[in-house]
Design a protein that fits this description.
alpha/beta
């Protein structure tokens, strides 16, 4: 959980973060959120705050409640926005985290200057956001942009979302770690120490140093990511695709395999290429996006 105070020009004045575990209590976490807001707003004064923008997973924007968030099972049906509004008495808006990260990157980051953009966040899962005509497209309930739950392997594993063969199962951080771990258990050689837990960052480092197994796992993840992106390209015809999230630290290693899929399989009007860029706002993307979302909603009534 991260809290930040931003000014009218979207400059981050202060920020604070604490871990939110899979077994976290919604009420306890939200009380801590209010404490963090109070502590971080001291330098500007609580009276200077004009609203709160909240970025959260699996949100039904009409009612402000989380709907079956895969990594926060205790939060199903919980309304963060209702809690915060009751505590602070300020206007509150809430949107899906990946969509708001897309909005932040479009306004101030790697998506600046284009009207139509797709955003992918590669992390524990894979989320997405859609910008059409310079505006965030959310769908009626706010669930548009679930780009990580496009099927790339029809006979594949069952995802936490209930679908089978989702992109998230084949190109997220845990899937990369799983690929190396399972291959090592089956006798494949790797430079990664058996005494240390495997991490996504370690897999990318080992691959760049010439570890064949890690390179194969990354190539496979890149291929699946390319397949997912290809389908979304054909659906939306974006001018640019922006990739963020923790796994995007391996962007340079994933990109050739994404581009290969596009080069070999994209429809003719794409001319075999796509403008794909790494996100530039880092962990601030969803914070800035939430502030943009708040401002847009307040100005549009």
């Amino acid at each position: 959980m991260r809290v930040a105070i931003l000014d009218n020009n979207l400059n981050v004045l202060s920020r604070e973060s604490v871990p939110t575990g899979i077994d976290s209590s919604p009420d306890d976490s939200c009380r801590l959120m209010i404490q963090m807001i109070d502590a971080n707003s001291k330098q500007v004064g609580r009276e200077s705050l004009f609203g709160v923008g909240i970025s959260a997973p699996s949100v039904d924007k009409r009612i402000g409640s989380l709907i079956n968030p895969p990594n926060l099972p205790n939060w199903d049906g919980y309304s963060i926005s209702k809690f915060v509004k009751c505590q602070l008495g300020l206007p509150v808006v809430i949107g899906n985290d990946a969509s708001l990260a897309a909005l932040g990157e479009h306004r101030l980051g790697a998506g600046d200057g284009v009207e139509n953009m797709l955003y992918y966040t590669l992390s524990t899962g894979i989320g997405g956001g859609i910008i059409i005509g310079g505006r965030l497209y959310e769908g009626k309930k706010g669930f548009a942009g679930e780009l990580g739950h496009i099927t790339v392997e029809p006979e594949g594993r069952i995802c936490n979302c209930g679908n089978r063969g989702c992109l998230e199962l084949y190109a997220s951080g845990p899937s990369i770690v799983r690929g190396v771990t399972e291959a090592r258990k089956n006798g494949r050689a790797t430079s990664l120490s058996c005494d240390m837990p495997v991490s996504t960052a370690a897999v990318f480092r080992a691959s760049s140093a010439g570890d064949r197994l890690c390179s194969e796992v990354i190539a496979k993840a890149g291929k699946y990511l390319g397949l997912g992106i290809l389908g979304a390209m054909h659906a939306f015809e974006p001018e640019r695709i922006v990739i963020g999230g923790g796994v995007s630290a391996g962007f340079d290693q994933l990109l050739p395999f994404i581009e290969q899929q596009i080069s070999e399989n994209a429809m003719a009007h794409f001319e075999g290429s796509m403008d794909i860029r790494m996100a530039t706002l880092g962990e601030d993307s969803s914070l800035i996006g939430a502030a943009c979302y708040l401002s847009d909603n307040l100005h549009n009534g």
